[in-house]
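Q: what sequence does this backbone want?
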C-alpha cells in the first residue's frame, strides 16, 4: 500500500496553482464578479434598480439604488485594484464595504425565518447562508491583505 503524503504538506500541483501570480487576482475577481455585474446592470437600467429597492421596501428607492451601485462598484474596484496598484492598501475597505452590504442585503432579501415552511423558505435559507459565505470570503480577503502589508 502506497504511503500518503503528510497531512500538513501541500501537494506540489496545488502549491503551483496557489503560487501562480494571477491566482490571487482571479480569485478576487471571481469573488466580486456579481457585484461588478450588478452595479453596471443597475447603472444601465435605472428604472429596474429603483423597482428592486421598492420591492424590498427601501425608501426612497433612488437613494438606496444609488448607494447600492456605489458600494458594489467602488467596493469591487478597491478589492481588485487595491491588490494590484495600492500594494494591498484599501483592500480592507472594499472588502468591508461589500461584506457589510452583503450581510444587510441577505437580512433584507432572504429573511427565511419569517417565511412559512415550504420551497420558498428553503430557497431563501440557502441564499442567506450562501451570502454569509461571501461575507466570510470578504473577511478573508481583508485578513490576507493585512498580512501581506505586514510582511507576514
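A:
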Amino acid at each position: 500500500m502506497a504511503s500518503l503524503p503528510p497531512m500538513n504538506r501541500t501537494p506540489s500541483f496545488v502549491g503551483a496553482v496557489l503560487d501562480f501570480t494571477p491566482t490571487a487576482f482571479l480569485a478576487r475577481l471571481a469573488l466580486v464578479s456579481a457585484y461588478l455585474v450588478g452595479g453596471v446592470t443597475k447603472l444601465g437600467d435605472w428604472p429596474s434598480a429603483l423597482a428592486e429597492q421598492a420591492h424590498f421596501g427601501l425608501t426612497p428607492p433612488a437613494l438606496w439604488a444609488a448607494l447600492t451601485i456605489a458600494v458594489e462598484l467602488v467596493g469591487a474596484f478597491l478589492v481588485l485594484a487595491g491588490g494590484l496598484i495600492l500594494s494591498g492598501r484599501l483592500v480592507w475597505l472594499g472588502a468591508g464595504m461589500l461584506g457589510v452590504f452583503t450581510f444587510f442585503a441577505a437580512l433584507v432579501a432572504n429573511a427565511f425565518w419569517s417565511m412559512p415552511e415550504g420551497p420558498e423558505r428553503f430557497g431563501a435559507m440557502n441564499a442567506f447562508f450562501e451570502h454569509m459565505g461571501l461575507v466570510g470570503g470578504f473577511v478573508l480577503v481583508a485578513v490576507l491583505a493585512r498580512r501581506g502589508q505586514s510582511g507576514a
